[in-house]
Design a protein that fits this description.
alpha+beta, Enolase-like, domain 1, Uridine Diphospho-n-acetylenolpyruvylglucosamine Reductase, domain 2, 4-stranded antiparallel sheet, 5-stranded antiparallel sheet, 12 strands
């Protein structure tokens, strides 16, 4: 049985109090605990050994959704709360799809949005118990000097496995960070990540991620609730009405071995803003689980601008996105196959944005029966 190490526990009641406690600890010696679905297993495996754990569940403001120009999502919102919220399901379908596919219902009841955004990077050589890692001389990410994925690599290649970050980046989300010494700042979510398996997040040691800011999104609705018409998960079963001018739609596709519980070995998020004539005004395609950070496919995204989502345009964008993917041999499945399948999954995502009915492909290929997820 793996047991937790000894640690001190603090339970602040406000963000200000939590930031003050965090600032009073030496860098790296205190860690934030929300749902604990990532941190506590890591502590049991001695991957992370904070002297002080600061529990955030008692801070009510972190669990709220507020209306504004778009939506303001508290970082302490559980993933289950996101899945249940009709505003997320109808207006930010890609985020709903991503949250609905994380782990299991039990873990979604505990895990939080902020926790998923700050999820530790993963690797076959890192996500093992202490004795296993000691037997190979540890690795660069923890206690060792070599990245066993590529032994000549000067940096850790552990992979980003967050599901919500790619789709939120595609939606142009920003995050609000608070510290006791520097006050607060708002940054683009895309700028929060680094392509480094160890220093994968650009959050200062004394900062707390407190809120996600979403711009307005007016997705086309069918009676079932899918973008462009279709099932309530956004699979799209044909278009039932014309899109409103400059309308955003979003979608998320996840590859994993099992139909639930698994981390992604590939995530594809796509969001696009359409004119009433169906021309793409702006688009973003973001890949997850193929690098130490979510990757924005800039050339593929730009290729869609000013065009309709024809089969040829989708195929060309998928080819450009495929070139960006750089998976390594650090997770499930053969890595060169994971790169190759990127092309297909980008195509599925863009076809779904177009309004195609891809419920069969979601179920048979991606094992996603999202209509049944509550």
């Amino acid at each position: 049985m793996m047991r937790l190490p000894y640690f001190g526990y603090r339970a602040p009641r406000s963000v200000k109090e939590a930031a003050r406690i965090l600032a009073g600890e030496a860098p790296g010696e205190a860690m934030l605990l929300a749902g604990g679905t990532d941190l506590l297993p890591n502590m049991k495996r001695r991957q992370q050994t904070p002297k002080t754990v600061i529990g955030l569940r008692g801070i009510a403001e972190l669990g709220r959704i507020r209306n504004g120009k778009g939506l303001r999502l508290g970082a302490g919102l559980t993933l289950a709360a996101l899945v249940r919220d009709t505003r997320i399901r109808e207006r930010y379908t890609g985020l709903w799809q991503a949250a609905a596919q994380i782990a299991t219902p039990h873990l979604r009841n505990m895990g939080t949005l902020g926790g998923n955004l700050c999820l530790d990077t993963r690797c076959n050589y890192y996500d093992q118990n202490y004795e296993w890692r000691k037997a190979i001389g540890f690795c660069m990410k923890k206690d060792g000097a070599i990245c066993w994925v590529a032994t000549s690599s000067p940096r850790c290649l552990a992979v980003s496995s967050t599901d919500t970050a790619p789709v939120l980046i595609a939606l142009g989300a920003r995050v609000r960070l608070v510290s006791s010494a520097e006050g607060e700042r708002v940054v683009s979510l895309a700028d929060l990540y680094r392509n480094d398996g160890i220093h994968y997040i650009a959050r200062r040691p004394d900062e707390i991620l407190v809120e996600v800011l979403l711009e307005p999104s007016s997705e086309s609705r069918s009676p079932d609730g899918g973008p462009g018409g279709g099932d309530s998960a956004g699979a799209g079963a044909g278009r039932t009405r014309a899109a409103s001018p400059l309308e955003w739609r979003s979608t998320y596709w996840k590859l994993r071995r099992r139909g639930s519980f698994d981390f992604p070995v590939l995530g594809v998020a796509a969001a696009a803003r359409f004119t009433q004539e169906g021309i793409v005004e702006e688009a973003r395609i973001v890949l997850g689980a193929v690098s130490s950070q979510p990757l924005l496919c800039e050339r593929a995204s730009a290729h869609l601008t000013g065009k309709t989502l024809s089969d040829a345009t989708i195929a060309e964008a998928a080819e450009l996105a495929w070139q960006v993917a750089k998976p390594m041999d650090n997770t499930d499945f053969v890595y060169h196959w994971r790169k190759r399948v990127t092309r297909e999954f980008v195509g599925y995502a863009l076809r779904e944005l177009r309004g195609d009915d891809l419920r069969r492909e979601r179920l048979s290929i991606a094992r996603q029966e999202l209509l049944q997820i509550l």
